[in-house]
Write a structure and sequence with these properties.
The chain contains 3 helices and 7 strands, in the order βααββββαββ. It is α/β, with parallel strands linked by helices. The protein folds into 2 domains: about 5-75, Helix Hairpins, CATH 1.10.287; about 80-155, Transcription elongation factor, GreA/GreB, C-terminal domain (Chitinase A, domain 3, Roll). The strands form 2 sheets. It has a 5-stranded mixed sheet with strand order 5-4-3-7-6. Strands 1-2 form a two-stranded parallel ribbon. α1 runs antiparallel to α2 (about 45-70). The longest helix has 30 residues, at about 10-35. Pfam families: GreA_GreB, GreA_GreB_N. This is Transcription elongation factor GreA.
């Protein structure tokens, strides 16, 4: 089976969500279903049907998280010696060669990507252009506006 890269932080976040769903949400829904069942006729019991629907969504999310964790290859970038090379999990500061505008991204797994937190997916065009390059190298990224060159300013293992 194919393993998918995931940072330690990403795995921890999924494990915390799984714990919350199994220890808090699942028992509450079970209780809510029991209470709704006591209200009478199940055919016209909106509370019961809503709780059952919610339970189905929670159980699906639990299975999804368990599958993702089972198929994850957890990579601790802090345990990898710093070489100045862009690899999965590193935090990379890049500068647009034309404008000298600087941005910093962490390269993470697809499930962890969140641009607002400066976390980009390893399969994104920017990450694919950066992976394997060294500090000081220039990476060319194909964007909707054309090709953009970025210089790799710094690579950090955080």
């Amino acid at each position: 089976m194919t393993k998918y890269p995931m940072t330690v932080q990403g795995a921890r976040a999924l494990e915390e969500e799984l714990q919350h769903l199994t220890k808090v949400v699942r028992p509450k829904l079970s209780h809510d279903i029991g209470v709704a069942r006591e209200l009478g006729d199940l055919k016209e019991n909106a509370e019961y049907h809503a709780a059952r629907e919610q339970q189905g969504m929670v159980e699906a999310r639990i299975r999804d998280i368990e599958g993702r964790l089972q198929n994850a290859q957890i990579i601790d970038v802090t345990a990898i010696p710093h070489s100045g090379k862009v690899i999965f999990g590193t935090t990379v500061e890049i500068a647009n060669v034309e404008t000298d505008e600087r941005v910093t991204y962490q390269i993470v797994g697809e499930d962890e990507a969140e641009i607002k937190l400066s976390k980009i997916s390893v399969s994104s065009p920017i990450a694919r252009a950066l992976i394997g390059k060294q500090e000081g190298d220039v990476a060319v990224v194909k964007t909707p506006g054309g090709l953009v060159e970025f210089e790799i300013v710094e690579v950090r293992h955080l």
